[in-house]
Structure to design on (285 residues):
């Protein structure tokens, strides 16, 4: 591989060092930064993310509380539980693991969370903050993690072209807005984009967030690009976790690329922990 590998561990370590100092100061002042994780059912990916969040939070001084429910929990029961967490002054951040199983109304549940406790940036209020640049609420963790990697490795955005492949509210659209705020010229691509490989090749920075494992091969890339691969999924062919990008092909072409695993995902939980610490600090202000 000829590309520089933008590993997430170093980025996460730098974020964690700062978060640990903030949490230590808060604890000395009598405030224990606390994250409540709300999980419905026993999805393997939810459990994995919950374990990762707990490990990260414990390492920096954030307390994690689990609120788990059976998959047949009613809308009223779940709403009451989330509402109680919203009112609990000892809880500074709420993480709702999604998607929620049918027939639960996910939109109604997530929008119960006030922006000041929405540490994953999933509510309409937080999203409005992303799109207006008002600073309301917190940024979506995965989109911010991608930006933290660019910052850590000193990859400039201003004046450069960027292609975001994927338009989800979880990653694609927030990432596009964050790049735009950094004065990049952004193209948001999706499944209906004509000439997608050509559009991707034309960009200086590519954020791959289409959610299709191993779908972006050599024809999507050119020399000199920086590629941030947000995707993660199991490849039956390779029998391992892979991103949206065919890393073995892209890394022979581009200048820099994040690995999967060990890239954006490693930074996402560090961003989450930092958001909880910030929420706790804001509550004392």
């Amino acid at each position: 591989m000829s590309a520089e590998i933008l590993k997430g561990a170093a980025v996460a370590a730098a974020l964690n060092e700062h978060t640990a100092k903030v949490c230590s100061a808060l604890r000395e002042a009598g405030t224990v930064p606390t994250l409540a994780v709300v999980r419905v059912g026993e999805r393997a990916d939810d459990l994995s993310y919950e374990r990762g969040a707990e490990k990260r939070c414990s390492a920096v001084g954030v307390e994690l509380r689990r609120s788990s429910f059976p998959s047949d929990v009613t809308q009223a029961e779940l709403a009451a539980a989330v509402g109680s967490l919203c009112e609990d002054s000892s809880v500074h951040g709420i993480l709702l693991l999604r998607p929620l199983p049918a027939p639960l109304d996910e939109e109604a549940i997530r929008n119960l969370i006030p922006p000041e406790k929405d540490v994953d940036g999933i509510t309409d209020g937080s999203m409005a903050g992303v799109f207006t640049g008002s600073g309301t609420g917190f940024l979506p963790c995965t989109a911010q993690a991608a930006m933290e990697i660019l910052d850590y490795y000193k990859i400039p955005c201003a004046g450069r072209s960027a292609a975001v492949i994927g338009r989800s509210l979880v990653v694609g659209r927030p990432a596009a807005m964050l790049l735009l705020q950094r004065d990049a010229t952004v193209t948001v691509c999706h499944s209906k984009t004509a000439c997608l490989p050509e559009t991707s090749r034309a960009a200086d920075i590519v954020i791959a967030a289409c959610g299709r494992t191993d779908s972006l091969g050599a024809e999507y890339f050119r020399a000199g690009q920086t590629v941030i691969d947000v995707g993660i999924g199991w490849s039956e062919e390779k029998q391992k976790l892979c991103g949206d990008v065919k890393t073995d092909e892209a890394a022979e072409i581009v200048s820099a690329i994040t690995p999967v695993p060990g890239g954006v995902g490693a930074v996402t939980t560090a961003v989450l922990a930092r958001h909880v610490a910030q929420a706790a600090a804001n509550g004392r202000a």
Notes: Residues 31-115 form a domain with the Rossmann fold fold (CATH 3.40.50.10860). The longest strand covers residues 34-40.
